[in-house]
Amino acid sequence: MPLVLLIIYLFLEVMTTAAFINAFGGVALFLEIVVTAVIGVLMFGSLNRHMGSLMGDLMARRISEQELVASSLYRVIGGLLLIMPGLLTDLLGLMMQFRFMGRGVVHRFYRHKGPKTYAKGDSREEVIDVEVVDSTDALRHPRSGRDQPDA
Predict the structure, then answer these.
(1) With contact defined as beta carbons under 8 Å apart, do 28 and 16 qualify?
(2) Is 93 in contact with 40 (CB distance < 8 Å)?
(3) 107-123 residue pLDDT tens
(4) Domain ranges in the chain?
(5) pTM, whole model, 2 decimals?
């Protein structure tokens, strides 16, 4: 099945490229490929700033975790698609820069799991059993009985 999808994609890419060249010429196609690749590289360059603003929005509760994941994931994938040569990949890369594209897909796959709450008296809490051992004997020099010097 993935091979069939790849063949369909390649066919559509060749057809759109041929139609673009017939309408605008080969130089326009070359310029389109270069310009979208530069835009993709610039998007990766500004990714740190973008993630910082998203984290600020998340902490201020202006966006949800799902929107954070959608925006950052689609920005990375869209940037990669813009860098790759091809008209369809450029179109998909540009479409992925808009939030409405990412929300629908991420909402299907990413489910927010809040903290577990139990009814009063329910004893499902984890119990961690520990043993406290006095380690002052381990700090002493084994032969002389004096403390080891600090390193």
Answers:
(1) no
(2) yes
(3) 566 555 544 444 555 55
(4) 8-109
(5) 0.61
